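This protein record is not my work; I was only asked to verify it. Take the sequence as given and treat only the tokens as open to question. I have pasted the whole thing underneath without changing anything:
***
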Amino acid sequence: MTEIQRLDPAVAVAELRASGDSARGFLGLDPVTQNDSLLTQELESLQAQLFSAGETLVGFAPNADQPRQAYVASTSADPEPLRALLEFLATYQRCTTFVAMVPDGVEAAQGFAACGFERVGVLPRHRWQNYDWQDVLVYVGRTDTCRS
């Protein structure tokens, strides 16, 4: 299994920025247009934790309204770092369900599908990017269907 390494906030922000377009929409953030200070504040307010697995970043933010649920994100279509994150969340955070909100057209969506996430909806024209509104795809996964 792929190993993930937790990043401290300053490194996480730098890695998000270095990921460029593949990090747009990561936990609702946009490191292309948001500065480091704002990204740091946003990650803190979400209580988000980010991890690296080679060139891939994965991360989660707990859902305050559903204690056993986490919002998850990835910068890659590779399912292995995501599987490692889901295993971590199930084991150490006791999460049973996961939600991913992925901008339409982002290759990371393939990784969620490969991990057993089900596309359950679309938020039409939810994000503003590149001078146009963009749809966001909503994926849901459960521990029993997402584990390898």
